[in-house]
Structure formats: structure tokens, C-alpha cells
Design a protein that fits this description.
The protein is α/β, with parallel strands linked by helices. Helices cover about 35% and strands about 15% of the residues. It has two domains: about 240 residues, Type I PLP-dependent aspartate aminotransferase-like (Major domain) (Aspartate Aminotransferase, domain 2), CATH 3.40.640; about 110 residues, Aspartate Aminotransferase, domain 1, CATH 3.90.1150.10. A hairpin with a 2-residue loop joins strand 10 and strand 11. Helix 1 packs antiparallel against helix 8, helix 2 packs parallel to helix 8 and helix 3 packs parallel to helix 4. It is globular and about 65 Å long. It binds pyridoxal-5'-phosphate. Pyridoxal-5'-phosphate binds next to helix 3 and helix 4. The site of pyridoxal-5'-phosphate has 14 residues, from helix 3 and helix 4.
């Protein structure tokens, strides 16, 4: 029995060829020789239609660096708890306090109404996650940001190619952070990117370029200076060249994800499941089931891999606090991610739907 994988990068001869080309070029580091990193930044900027972009080596690095542009020491950042831990780690790495907010049960994205009651004098940023690639209510969240004069920094790790009101995710928030982890919609061995918007974008890019490479600035030939601390967060040429090939077919790959999502939405006999929205990139497709352990075992036994996204961050030992998030906590006990990726065949998605309808 061939197992149906939960995630699977979509690759073909073009990815193979481009990797071998970089390998043989002997220029593997960022900006060396072939300059695929810069090409990828330019292409992605064009794709999302933002003011600027900075490529880095992970989504975690993108979040860390984007938030480093604000003076967050002892300040607060509002974010959902239903996310990968990196979202909150990026806040802590910038000496700020994460303030977790509950989600809207129909989309699992941050609930704008609940954000309002958490705004304090210490709030310095709002960090929503486009959960599973489903676009958050950016109009409502942007309004809160404008009213309180704080920046909108988006975690778009799941949302490469998603859009909001016909504009690609990446063009709304001041800083929008993407992940290109192998399981993401645009796959690299590891990678991330910050999309920048606003009048000061050139200056922010300059600062971020330096921070992603050990604080190095003013490089002319072998001469350079270091004025502040930075990290080793630059993207390498292998990731960038793969990114260019993947970017070319991202809309096509997401279209396939959407077709599968539509089929799941109409044929899975469960009340609580991810809604269908043509603007979603469907990095994940989630369903809520009652007896999750037994359900997952049944699917595993018929060769279907499933996952849990996520155990809420505020329940992890490091982040434990007393604030209750009733919706997040209820959902996290029932949520199951089912396979959704461009490599799935019709007969595989039929098998998945039949198994879910039988065992849920
Ligand atoms: C919502 C979310 N944010 C941030 C990240 C971090 O991205 P990366 O794994 O590329 O560091 C991930 C990746 O798993 C994620 O799912």
C-alpha cells in the first residue's frame, strides 16, 4: 500500500536541472556569481506587487528580522496562539511579550474584535497568521493598526500565492513574512522572505540586508564595516534557484490545491471544516473530529497520513500563562490536517474523502 503523504513538494526536471547548474557553478553563497537570490527577490516582489523584498534563510528568520525593526524591548505584540512556535519565538527574540488572542472558529484566523480589548499602551505591533493560507480580515486588522499607530506585521508562512480582495498577500502589511520550508506552497530546502511596503522601504531593506548578514555594511570589494549586531540569515543560491522555478508555477500549483479544497469542502460530511475561499492558498486543509486519536489511527491504517496543526503556543511550557483562549483550546483538541498538495491524484482524494466519511 503506497502511503498518501500529508505534504509533498512538487518538483520536476526543471528543479533538478537548476540545482545541478548551481552546484556546478561553484557559487553557492548569497549574491555570489550567479546572483539567484537577488533575482528571486525581484521576481517575488513583482509577483506580490510590493515595494521591496529581502530574502532570508527561513520564515523564522523573516519574523525575527521584521520585528527587529521596532523597539520592542518590554513592549507587547498581539498574535494568535494557534500557530507554529516561531511566530511567538520571534517576539521573544526581540525582548517583547507575546499577547495571545483567540481565533475566529470559522476560519481559525485571528479575531479582530478580540484584538481590540487587548490593545494597551505597551502594544507595539499586531502579528496575524493567515492560517492554512486563509486570508485574515486585513481590513479590520489594518484599521486597528492605523487607529493605534502600530505596524501590521503578517505571518504569511502559509500564504504564498494567497490573496485578499484580489491583491496578493505580501502587499498589505508593512512587513509580510513568508516561509519556503519544504512543505510550504513554494518549496525550498529552507528559506523565507520579508515583503516590505511603505515610504521608507528602501531604508528598511538596507537595514535588513545588513542584519541578515552579520551586520555587514558598506561593502566595496574586500572592504566593509559593521555598525551593529546581525545574524547569519542569508538565503543560499540553491534555495533561490529552486524558488525561481517554483515561483513560475506557484499559481498553477495553488489552483490544484484549490480544486482539491473545493472537493473536500463539498464531499466531506463534517460540519466543522475549512471553508472554501478562492483567495486561500490552502497550505493546509483542516477538519474537526470528535475522537481524534482513533480517527487518525484509522486513517493511518488505510495509508493516509494526517497531522495536527497546532498544539497552541500558550499551552507550551515556555509560554504557559493563565489567560484562557476557549476557542483555540477547544479546536486544538479536535483539529486534524489532511493531505492537500499538487501531487495528489483524483483517486487519492476520493480515497481520503471516503475514509474521512467512514471513520469520523
Ligand atoms: C505559521 C508559521 N510561521 C512561521 C513558520 C516558520 O517558518 P520556517 O520553518 O521557514 O522557519 C512556520 C513554519 O513552519 C509556520 O507554519
Amino acid at each position: 500500500m503506497t502511503k498518501i503523504k500529508l505534504f509533498d513538494p512538487s518538483i520536476n526536471k526543471l528543479e533538478e536541472k537548476s540545482i545541478v547548474n548551481v552546484l556546478k557553478s561553484h557559487f553557492w553563497a548569497s549574491g555570489a556569481g550567479t546572483n539567484y537570490v537577488q533575482k528571486f527577490e525581484k521576481q517575488f516582489q513583482k509577483f506580490v506587487n510590493s515595494d521591496n523584498t529581502v530574502a532570508v534563510n527561513s520564515g523564522t528568520a523573516a519574523l525575527h528580522l521584521a520585528l527587529s525593526l521596532f523597539n520592542l524591548s518590554n513592549k507587547e505584540v498581539i498574535l494568535p496562539s494557534l500557530s507554529f512556535v516561531s511566530t511567538a519565538h520571534a517576539v521573544i527574540l526581540n525582548q517583547a511579550k507575546p499577547v495571545f488572542v483567540d481565533v475566529d472558529p470559522s476560519t481559525l484566523c485571528i479575531d479582530p474584535e478580540k484584538i481590540k480589548s487587548l490593545i494597551s499602551k505597551k502594544t507595539e505591533a499586531i502579528l496575524p497568521v493567515h492560517f492554512g493560507g486563509f486570508p485574515c480580515n486585513l481590513d479590520a486588522i489594518s484599521k486597528i493598526c492605523i487607529d493605534n499607530n502600530i505596524p501590521l506585521v503578517e505571518d504569511a508562512a502559509h500564504a504564498a500565492g494567497a490573496s485578499y480582495k484580489n491583491n496578493k498577500i505580501g502587499t498589505h502589511g508593512k512587513f509580510v513574512c513568508f516561509s519556503f520550508h519544504p512543505v510550504k506552497n513554494l518549496s525550498m530546502p529552507s528559506g523565507g522572505l520579508i515583503s516590505i511596503n511603505g515610504t521608507n522601504h528602501k531604508n528598511f531593506k538596507k537595514i535588513l540586508n545588513s542584519r541578515r548578514w552579520c551586520g555587514i555594511t558598506n561593502r566595496i570589494g574586500s572592504e566593509y564595516d559593521v555598525k551593529e549586531l546581525g545574524w547569519n540569515y542569508y538565503m543560499n543560491e540553491f534555495s533561490a534557484v529552486l524558488g525561481l522555478v517554483q515561483l513560475d508555477k506557484l499559481d498553477k500549483m495553488n489552483k490544484k490545491r484549490k480544486l482539491i479544497a473545493k472537493k473536500y469542502f463539498t464531499k466531506i460530511n463534517l460540519e466543522e471544516k475549512m471553508p472554501f475561499n478562492t483567495e486561500c492558498s490552502y497550505h493546509l486543509y483542516w477538519i474537526l473530529v470528535k475522537n481524534r486519536t482513533k480517527f487518525r489511527k484509522n486513517l493511518h491504517d488505510v495509508g493516509i497520513e494526517t497531522g495536527i496543526h497546532y498544539k497552541p503556543i500558550h499551552l507550551m511550557s515556555m509560554y504557559k500563562n493563565n489567560r484562557k483562549l476557549p476557542i483555540t483550546e477547544k479546536i486544538s483538541k479536535q483539529i486534524v490536517s489532511i493531505p492537500i498538495h499538487p501531487n495528489l491524484t483524483n483517486s487519492q482524494t476520493n480515497k481520503i474523502i471516503n475514509a474521512i466519511n467512514k471513520y469520523s
